[in-house]
């Protein structure tokens, strides 16, 4: 039984691409069945096309309300028979209907060592605060923003000569390595559980 995985993204899609390449190389024990983007101009849609991943896109505005958007997205996930959801730069809070349908099945990537620096601009905030290090967190989500059981964390040292750009680049490199590895561990554990049933 292959676990079916959807990736939700809002922007450029570098983490989507890192995950997709890991799926395609057989490094993640699952099947990537869908990319969903919530902006029609998101560059991640072109990446999905280039990488041969089925992509769907609609906005809250098109749906008329947050609730209608959430219900339409839930229907889409059910249509693709999705087992797990990966949030790769998805800049919307996941609402209660999807959380209830996928408990401990939604994995987020955050560019900070949570609980420090939740929310937006985490790398810049850590840099401006003069921190000695920041990092990357992969975690299951819950009702709170950037909160929930941690799956994996990795530190990224902030060097004295770092610019925001060089630090951001290193954080992204860490994300591209850590996210696929953490997802692989979660899906492997889920498959082992399924086999025991």
From TrEMBL:
Catalytic residues (positions): 110 (proton donor)
The biological processes this protein is annotated with in GO are: 'de novo' IMP biosynthetic process
Family (UniProt): Belongs to the GART family.
Identify this protein by name: Phosphoribosylglycinamide formyltransferase
Entry keywords, A to Z: Purine biosynthesis, Transferase
Residue numbers for the site described as Raises pKa of active site His?
146
Provide the residue positions that the database annotates as binding (6R)-10-formyltetrahydrofolate.
66, 91-94, 108
Tell me the function of this protein: Catalyzes the transfer of a formyl group from 10-formyltetrahydrofolate to 5-phospho-ribosyl-glycinamide (GAR), producing 5-phospho-ribosyl-N-formylglycinamide (FGAR) and tetrahydrofolate.
């Amino acid at each position: 039984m292959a676990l079916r995985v959807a990736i939700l993204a809002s922007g450029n899609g570098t983490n989507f691409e890192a995950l997709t390449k890991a799926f395609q190389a057989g490094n993640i024990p699952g099947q990537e069945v869908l990319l969903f983007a919530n902006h029609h101009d998101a560059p991640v849609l072109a990446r999905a096309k280039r990488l041969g991943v089925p992509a769907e896109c609609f906005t809250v505005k098109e749906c008329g309300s947050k609730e209608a958007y959430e219900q339409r997205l839930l229907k889409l996930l059910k249509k693709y028979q999705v087992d797990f959801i990966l949030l790769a730069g998805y800049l919307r809070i996941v609402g209660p209907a999807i959380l209830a349908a996928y408990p401990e099945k939604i994995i987020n990537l955050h560019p900070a060592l949570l609980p420090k620096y939740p929310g937006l601009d985490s790398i810049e905030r850590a840099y401006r605060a003069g921190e000695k290090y920041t990092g990357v967190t992969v975690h299951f989500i819950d009702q709170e923003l950037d909160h929930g059981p941690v799956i994996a964390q990795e530190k990224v040292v902030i060097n004295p000569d770092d610019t925001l750009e060089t630090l951001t680049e290193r954080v992204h490199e860490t994300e591209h390595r850590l996210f696929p590895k953490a997802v692989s561990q979660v899906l492997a554990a889920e498959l082992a559980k399924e086999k025991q049933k």
